[in-house]
Amino acid sequence: MTVDSSCGTAAEKERGEERSPDRWMVVFLNDDYTPFDWVIDVLIRIFERTPVDAMTVTRSVHQQGRGIAGVYPRVKALRLVAKCMSEARRDGYPFTCIAVPAEGGGLSL
């Protein structure tokens, strides 16, 4: 099964949010300290990804240095980044994720 990182959750699709022109990618960046299981848990809990999708994204982060957690409207993407970063610091991990414009964001993925 391939991961379609160009869309948000099923609920967002139903509301038509996937058609918003203001789309931002939430990108997870690799580090050598944040546990694999922690990243998978965040993807499932915060980003509402399936366990299979979460594993696929986490493997991409580990193997390629980055992975797309999802594509969302700008405000939601920034809120999700803030929540992840807050939980990472609370749990003592140097985990980093960023939000970049989905179209022409200048981040080579």
Automatic annotation (TrEMBL):
InterPro entries: ClpS (IPR022935), ClpS_core (IPR003769), Ribosomal_bL12_C/ClpS-like (IPR014719). Residues 20-97 form the Adaptor protein ClpS core domain. GO terms for biological process: protein catabolic process; proteolysis. Pfam families: ClpS (PF02617). Binds to the N-terminal domain of the chaperone ClpA. Belongs to the ClpS family. Involved in the modulation of the specificity of the ClpAP-mediated ATP-dependent protein degradation. This is ATP-dependent Clp protease adapter protein ClpS. The gene is clpS.
